[in-house]
Amino acid sequence: MPKHIGIVACSSEGAALCYRTICLEGAKYLGKHAHPEVAMHNYPLSEYMRYIETDDWEGVADLMVSSAKKLAKAGADFVICPDNTIHQAFDLVVERSPIPWLHIAEEVAKEAVKNRFRKLGILGTRYLVESSVYPEKLETFGIDYILPEPKEREQINNIIFDELVNGILLNKSRNYFVEVIERLKENGCDAVVLGCTEIPLIITPEVSPLPVLDSTRILARAALKKAVGKE
Q: How far apart are CA 59 and CA 43, in angstroms?
């Protein structure tokens, strides 16, 4: 039997894309219309933002651990979180969690190695881009990276929280992302990390000037492989 996947959700759009990917791509391993059992728990994004905006990662960890405990009781064998920003609390979470976790940035780094990417641009919320979530994992795998400029980080952050988490996809915002990715390309990046789980909703491989590392789908696929024993 495949392992039961638990999803600790933060924003609804990113979590929905992750869940949908697991369900649709499960057939690749398990047959038509089949996928592993999936359970999801979600505190409101507003609860997370209370702690994120005050740099209280213990508070974020408390929410994540609480969700993990609920998922364990529901039968989940391991947990994933399709939200890059709150991985800043990851180390505080895993030591208290009743079940194991996959780390989104680690899975992205593995995918970068698989594709022989050596220098990545990192896109995401301001909180994520200015954190050690990706640098620590990329450095472990010997991968270089570039961050957007401070003004770009702020604009991307605004687009994420004012638009993408609410399911609003605007052409002007898509064009802005493309401009930022083009600058990352000019600075030597050979791929770009879509390090906010909503960015893949607006930036696809077809419009990106660089190959994309879609953190949402990469994590979902890693969970699928773990669930069916194809790690």
A: 12
